[in-house]
Write a structure and sequence with these properties.
The chain is built from five helices and no strands. By secondary structure, it is mainly alpha-helical.
Length: about 140
Amino acid sequence: MAEIAAASSIVSLIDFSGKVLAAGYGFLAKVARAPTEIHTLLTDVANVNTLLAQMQSLADDLADPNTKTVLKSLSDRGVFQSCEILLKSAENYLDSCRQIDGNHLKNFGRALKWPLMEREMKDTMQQLRILQDQLTAALTVDSS
């Protein structure tokens, strides 16, 4: 039963990470001099998205006892919940950088806040990389 919940969670995380990526790439398309950290953040989110998609293909085969064990272990350790929290953080960073058409004062204020948020975003990127390592390890264990 927990495996089915984990599989459902993976699907919703893939969907959510796709929305974050779409918003991020939309931001990059509009802003000529976007901070390099935004590019790095989107790369990390894309990597997590890819690993989640691989995890989903494993979850589709719940007849394999190894897959059940891996999914239950990840779910019990809160990996999927952490993933959702990190993706929400990424979404918030992108939203706080978003430029509002015709509102130069608010855009200027957002630009001033960026250096204050930069450190937090780097912490989120570090946590996303740890999450990538956890998902990669789980995929490796399942395939062996």
